[in-house]
Design a protein that fits this description.
It is a single chain. It is built from 16 helices and 18 strands. It is an alpha/beta fold and 519 residues long. The strands form five sheets. A six-stranded parallel sheet has the order 3-2-1-14-15-9, with helices on both faces. The protein has a four-stranded antiparallel sheet with strand order 5-4-8-10. A hairpin with a 2-residue loop joins strand 16 and strand 17. The radius of gyration is 27 Å and the shape is elongated. It binds one RNA strand of 77 nucleotides through helix 2, helix 6, strand 10, helix 7 and helix 8. Monomer. Belongs to the class-I aminoacyl-tRNA synthetase family. MetG type 2B subfamily. Keywords: Aminoacyl-tRNA synthetase, ATP-binding, Cytoplasm, Ligase, Nucleotide-binding, Protein biosynthesis. This is Methionine--tRNA ligase.
Length: 519
RNA sequence: GGCGGGGUAGCUCAGUUGGUGAGAGCGCAGGAUUCAUAACCCUGAGGUCGGCGGUUCAAUUCCGCCCCCCGCUACCA
């Protein structure tokens, strides 16, 4: 048993009625960076992702393809799993809602909500569009000149009544508002919190939580004609994976409640309203934070199949390189807001920050050590104020990163690390070690030592963002595997004079845009 | 309609508990330099800080009104 503090973080589980797209990749990369950060910072991390495989749409898509929902789920779930591998995601588990463990957990949470008196049977009635397979509110529909009532998508609707179980969401209005009040950090970023509060204040209706019109789902305990509304089942995945519901003393039970659910802004309501209400009802502790990220826009436009601007994450990675893509999204996009990207933008960022910035800094300092100091870390002489200042900048960065990563402000943490790079370049230029080589070799050695030491820290800090590239950088300054966690930042892990360094090699090549025409 | 967020340099954005000169990156122009991945460093570019009005000795920052953009406004997920 470790004495480390548990830290549980999740992505939303993806709906696999299609292949993963860039939005899925973005969420996974960001969550992975946060999980890696906490691990390096000494936490006992459990990082979960997976697929949400039930529901009407899965059944429908499968039918259209002439295959079973199981086959569709299996096929696409594997695509998501493969994407995780491609992106170097460090998730500790990959949950599928079709797994037996999840059916058990979902039925258990249902029973608990029922035992608490929050589930009742009634009938759901509304204007239903067969074509859209969706219900609409009366005011969303209109009766046209032909006397037929149409839904918002322009499809005819009919009045349908369906037997359904309901969850007494209306009973949780005050409790939820109190939650948002007492735990201001429960929802982030703030704009989303406002929206949620506004939504809850406008009044909550009971939620229909079962369906009888299709059967691809988890059976309602004691009434097998019904399957659970997908969201009841989907949200429960976060608890399922910890085993908390079935064995509170199990090996993973300690991870519940989750520290952070990282989701897209489109599903904030399910996570910030329904989910805590379900948990309260079932008597289960609430997650500490739900954080919604924004959408990625292709040159400012929403990606859509009709615009033909959908970007495949696999292509993006093979074109620019994995760490480059990870870096770009985490550096350029304010996490929590929408972000715009383009090939030019990615290329520019890679060259400015990675090639010209961190890569070049490592190269210019390490190559001088290789050429002038026999490739060994020199013994530093007395430190000047300039030396101390740049070391302090590096040493203090972890505090900033910890603060920002703790609030999901990934871009600010990355910005703080990039700041060390920029400061270091200024330091290096001001110290002019290439001049010192002829005038004061001891002083040159000190400058090179200090710079290499700063490179070490930059590399350690960059591990969550760019795991492979940061590792290469750490190899270049001969930091052993076991000394790469955050406890070795600062004084604790200073490079040892006399250490042999490998021959410097470029870690971040410049990106050269293909000659090809740009339409 | 209601609620919320936003309109700041060519582009993407940060920022001001109201006050000596409004910032960063990219792009651009000039300079310096040669350790380095034609990289790095320095300087500049002169933007009515959406519009109108108000409060104040003083507002881009506070208040009111108006214009524009975006999000939320429940049972597909």
């Amino acid at each position: 048993m470790s004495s480390k503090t548990p830290y549980y973080i999740t992505t939303a589980i993806s709906y696999p009625n299609g292949k993963p797209h860039i939005g899925h990749a973005y969420e996974l990369i960001a969550t992975d960076a946060m999980a890696r950060f906490q691990r390096l910072d000494g936490k006992d991390v459990f990082f979960l992702t997976g697929t949400d495989e039930h529901g009407q749409k899965m059944q429908q898509t499968a039918r259209n393809e002439g295959i079973t929902p199981e086959a569709l789920a299996e096929r696409n779930s594997n695509e998501f799993r493969a994407m995780g591998k491609l992106l170097n995601a460090s998730n500790d588990d990959f949950i599928r809602t079709t797994e037996p463990r999840h059916h058990e957990a979902s039925q258990e949470i249902w029973r608990r909500m029922e035992a608490n008196g929050d589930i009742y049977k009634d009938s759901y009635a509304g204007w239903y569009s067969v074509r859209d397979e969706a219900y609409y509110a009366e005011d969303e529909t209109e009766v046209r000149a032909d006397g037929v009532r149409y839904g918002p998508q322009g499809t005819p609707v009919e009045w349908v009544e369906e037997e359904s179980y309901f969850f007494k969401l209306s009973a949780y209005e005050d409790k939820l508002l109190k939650l948002y009040e007492d735990q201001p950090d429960f929802i982030g970023p703030n704009e989303r919190r406002n929206e949620v509060i506004s939504f809850v204040k406008s009044g909550l209706k009971d939620l229909s939580v079962s369906r009888t019109t299709f059967d691809w789902g988890i059976k309602v305990p004691g009434d097998e004609k019904h399957v659970m509304y997908v969201w009841v089942d989907a949200l429960t995945n976060y608890v399922t994976a910890t085993g908390y519901l079935t064995d509170q003393n199990g090996p993973r039970a300690k991870y519940w409640p989750a520290d952070a659910h990282i989701i897209g802004k489109d599903i904030i309501r399910f996570h910030a309203v329904y989910w805590p209400a379900f948990l309260m009802s079932a008597g289960i502790p609430l997650p500490k934070r739900v954080y919604a990220h924004g959408f990625l826009l292709n040159k400012g436009e929403k990606m859509s199949k009709s615009l033909g601007n959908v970007v495949d994450p696999v292509n993006l990675v093979s074109h620019f390189g994995l760490d480059q893509v990870r870096f770009f999204f985490l550096r350029e996009v304010s996490f929590g807001q929408d972000g715009s990207y383009s090939e030019e933008g990615i290329g520019t960022r890679i060259n400015a920050d990675l090639a010209n910035g961190i890569g070049n800094l490592a190269s210019r300092s390490l190559s001088m050590i290789a050429k002038n100091l026999e490739g060994k870390m020199p013994e530093p002489g007395p430190l000047t104020d300039a030396d101390k200042a740049i070391l302090a900048t590096a040493d203090e960065a972890i505090a900033i990163c910890r603060e920002e990563m703790g609030r999901q402000q990934i871009h600010k943490a990355v910005g703080a690390i990039m700041n060390i790079v920029n400061e270091s370049d200024r330091y290096f230029a001001a110290q002019e070690p290439w001049v010192l080589r002829k005038t004061d070799v001891a002083r040159m050695a000190t400058v090179l030592y200090v710079t290499a030491e700063v490179v070490r820290q930059i590399a350690i800090l960059f591990q969550p963002i760019m795991p492979d590239s940061a590792a290469k950088l750490l190899d270049l300054v001969a930091v052993p595997e076991e000394k790469r966690s955050f406890v070795y930042l600062g004084e604790a892990g200073r490079l040892a004079p006399g250490t042999e360094l490998p021959a410097p090699a470029p870690v971040f090549p410049r990106y050269i845009a293909p000659e090809a025409d740009k339409a």
